[in-house]
Write a structure and sequence with these properties.
The structure holds 2 protein chains of 2 kinds. Chain A has 7 helices and no strands. By secondary structure, chain A is mostly helical. The longest helix of chain A has 25 residues. The termini of chain A are far apart. Chain B is α/β, with parallel strands linked by helices. The chains are: A mainly alpha, B alpha/beta. Chains A and B meet through helix 2, helix 3, helix 5, helix 6 and helix 7 of A and helix 6 and helix 10 of B.
């Protein structure tokens, strides 16, 4: 269980934990309309042991309104600690394991993408950072309460027992898991987004494109048309 | 003849987007010398466009941020709904958001290349429904100019024989692209419901033309187009104008004031050189403002004189008034029958191949439709390049969750309502007396209020998109909303027009039908500000057409002078 995650691309900066923790302020945030991560966190109202950690905002540098688009670079430093990165890597492969369609999340560097994401100096990503880091802490707290050890030091069965309580949308209705379910849903979305947009994930999902086709666009294949015609023939009356 | 930096010229143009670019092309072709001032930096799509870069190569997988509102690879430089150091304000309790781009070519570098022309009714809205005002020109007058403009721009599409989509002249249009599976399914649903669905007119070449290549059916047009297939002024009219030797372009020139001579003519402008913050004064015999509807209005309102204390050429008081955007509301659905369908390349021309034009003019005339102006529906869906959003929509974890996402890929459908708003007195911009931008120029303050015309239109769109989704055997996935909640804020569709409208009467309009201001006869406006109404059809092709028509007349006048 103590597997250490090694970044798939070199890190620009030493891993620096810049968040300063406190446990007093409620989480709440409003996403700027043009930032497009998911929903902001609503105010904490459950009775669970959600950690309510707050963090100093990450101020930059941003890439600005005139970045070099043909040679993209990411100007901000990554901020996850090695322990956090290990936990995210572990969860990423629980969420997105290898199967016959493609590799696991860590094989394609998903934890690096999440580290870059939660370290980004934009409001939507900063809201995700609060949710994700609190979620990681919640997992350890929950594991300690249930098993007397951290999440990573719990057995596989113990880990999965916790995940099984928070991995499904409908479990958000259970007050003690409300925030943990939100955390897991967001992490799942980030893991699969990062996985399926990776070169291996693109192949897995079957995106065909981004290649020049000289001449007229050929349109659907015969096979695609046959399927469509079947669908049209069976449309509701 | 005026001169700047050793270059002699007759006409000074402010702005290098659709209006300014086209005017420069027409004038320079006619042998007239033009000085063009652009507030933003120089920009070369051939060198700078990220044509094949993928999401995983960009920070945050290319997702939108406050720096790049349409994602990392969007062409916009130094722009968006917020520009650092160049604020605008909103009157209390109102929201209008103002998109700008600070680059050569302006917003033509990233627009959707959706270019429907207006029909006869669009130019005479007041005559048809008693709201707003008519244009001082009609479709018959515009028709040959639309043909010329579409031919020059390079438009793919067809003549479907639908009233909302007037025919282009013979040989004007290039072949349109074949529809994709999800578009054909929407077509089947439209047939069941009796709605029209037709190829979308797009300013995307499907045949090579002049200096530009045909589309090679890949990469998003919003990034700009290094091969010139997707129209933008920076790969067409501006380089062509430069090639005549009659155009000089000065970038990083933020114009702050238009000067008036003692004889009541526009005598030139002052711009801020953005690189050294110095004011530079330049003269001109003719001035064309094409800085974008709101930027042009701002410039005129900031150009006060004894003769025009309320702003240059503003004796009507209409400068800044009559601001309109398109209505916008987005509706999503999920079509289980598309799950697991055979994969193939659905990139195509990147945008819509088919769309649903406005269909119920009859209902508007007999009163069964509870709003006066139409809308169209753009269609989204398909096997697009995966991004962070691809991770949404699974439940649980592990292989089953992974399989859910694989299954859903290509099965979602999306309708974007884009409609006409009716001009109203509550939507306008004025100079904020208290706020200046980093160049020391007073900024705009916006006022905005929708009317029931727009809410009723969105309610109609909500109802019909639900019918469409159900006719495909699908279900609606948009959250349940009221029309008030679904209608996007003003400015979000980036079709703002009307702030210097044209008309027949100098008391109620700023320019005549040639874009010539009533008050100052050598001052012309050639951007969207001159629109008298804002039909649901995206504004760019009409801005281009008016600029071609009006610059052609101006060229004749200058040569005859």
């Amino acid at each position: 269980m103590h597997k250490s995650y090694s970044p798939k691309v070199s890190r620009r900066d030493s891993l620096k934990w810049i968040g300063k923790m406190s446990t007093t302020v409620l989480i709440g945030g409003v996403v700027v309309a043009c930032d497009t991560a998911d929903q902001p966190m609503p105010e904490v109202k459950g009775t669970s042991h959600w950690p309510n950690l707050t963090f100093d905002p990450i101020m930059g540098p941003k890439y600005g309104q005139d970045p070099d688009m043909t040679n993209p670079t990411t100007p901000w430093a990554r901020t996850l600690t090695q322990d956090q990165l290990n936990l995210i890597a572990h969860l990423s492969d629980i969420i997105c394991p290898a199967d016959e369609g493609g590799p696991s999340a860590t094989v394609v560097g998903v934890p690096d993408v999440i580290d870059e994401w939660v370290s980004a100096p934009y409001e939507a990503q900063q809201n995700d950072r609060v949710l994700i880091l609190n979620g990681l802490q919640w997992l350890d707290d929950e594991a300690n309460m249930r098993n007397g050890s951290s999440f990573m030091n719990s057995s596989s069965d113990q880990q999965i027992a916790i995940i099984d309580d928070i991995a499904y949308e409908k479990q958000a209705e259970i007050a003690e898991f409300e925030h943990a379910v939100m955390f897991f849903a967001r992490l799942r979305s980030l893991v699969f987004g990062a996985y399926f947009s990776s070169p291996e994930g693109i192949e897995d999902i079957g995106y065909i494109g981004n290649e020049p086709i000289i001449g007229d666009y050929p349109g659907p294949t015969e096979e695609a048309m046959a399927h469509l015609n079947e669908v049209i023939a069976n449309l509701p009356a | 003849m005026a001169s700047f930096d050793g270059f002699e010229y007759d006409v000074l143009i402010v702005g290098s987007g659709a209006g300014g670019g086209m005017a420069a092309h027409i004038l320079t072709e006619a042998g007239i010398k033009v000085l063009m001032l652009e507030a933003g930096r120089d920009y070369d799509p051939v060198e700078e466009t990220p044509m094949f870069q993928m999401n995983h190569e960009a920070p945050l997988r290319g997702e939108s941020t406050s720096d790049k509102n349409f994602g990392y690879f969007d062409a916009t430089v130094d722009g968006g709904w917020e520009v650092p150091g160049e604020p605008y304000t909103n009157a209390e309790g109102t929201t209008f958001r103002w998109w700008r781009a600070r680059m050569l070519g302006g917003r033509t570098n990233h627009f959707g290349r959706y270019v429907p022309r207006f029909n006869d009714r669009d130019f005479k809205p007041f005559t048809h429904d008693g709201l707003g005002v008519d244009w001082p020109l009609d479709y018959d007058e515009m028709q040959p100019w639309y043909d010329k403009t579409e031919k020059l721009v390079g438009v793919s599409g067809n003549n479907p024989g639908v009233y909302d989509v007037p025919d282009s002249g013979e040989g004007v249009l290039q072949p349109h692209a074949k529809p994709r599976v999800y578009e054909l399914l929407v077509e089947a649903a439209c047939k069941k419901l009796g709605l029209p669905i037709v190829p979308m007119r797009r300013a995307v070449l499907t045949r090579a033309q002049d200096t530009r290549e045909a589309c090679f059916n890949a990469t998003d047009c919003g990034r700009g187009c290094s091969i010139g297939a997707a129209f933008q002024t920076t790969t067409s009219v501006i380089p062509w104008a430069k090639d005549t030797g009659n155009l000089k372009v000065v970038t990083d020139a933020m114009v702050k004031e238009v000067h008036l001579s003692d004889d009541g003519k526009a005598s030139g402008v002052t711009f801020v050189n953005r690189k050294n913050m110095q004011d530079v004064r330049v003269d001109a015999d003719y001035v064309i403002l094409a800085a974008s509807a709101c930027e042009t209005a701002r410039l005129m309102l900031n150009s006060t004189s004894e003769k025009f204390p309320n702003g240059l050429a503003n004796s009507s008081g209409q400068v800044g008034r009559n601001l309109m955007d398109s209505t916008g509301a987005d509706f999503t659905g999920y079509i289980p029958a598309l799950e697991g369908r055979p994969k193939y390349n659905e990139d195509g021309l990147a945008g819509n191949h088919l769309y649903i034009p406005w269909w119920d003019y009859e209902g508007q005339d007999d009163g069964s439709v509870k709003f006066k102006r139409g809308y169209h529906l753009e269609i989204g869906g398909g096997f697009g390049e995966p991004g962070m959003g691809t991770g949404n929509g699974a439940d649980g974890y592990g292989k089953s969750a992974k399989d859910q996402i694989r299954k859903k890929y290509g099965s979602g459908i999306y309708f974007a309502l884009r409609g006409e708003m009716v001009v109203n007195e509550n939507c306008y911009c004025e100079i904020d007396p208290d706020v200046k931008d980093k160049w020391g120029i007073p900024v705009l303050k916006f006022h905005w209020k929708w009317s029931d015309e727009e809410y009723n239109q969105v309610a109609h769109g909500m109802e019909w998109t639900e019918k469409l989704i159900k006719a495909m055997g699908g279900y609606v996935t948009s959250p349940k909303r009221t029309p008030e909640e679904a209608l996007l804020p003003g400015g979000l569709i980036i079709h703002e027009v009307g702030t210097t409208r044209m008309g027949d009467d100098p008391a109620t309009s700023v320019t005549n039908k040639w874009g010539q201001t009533w008050d100052v006869d050598n001052l012309y406006i050639m951007d969207g500000g001159v629109f008298a109404s804002n039909p649901h059809k995206n504004c760019t092709i009409t801005i281009l057409t008016l600029a071609m028509k009006n610059a052609t007349k101006l060229a004749e006048e200058i040569k005859n002078a």
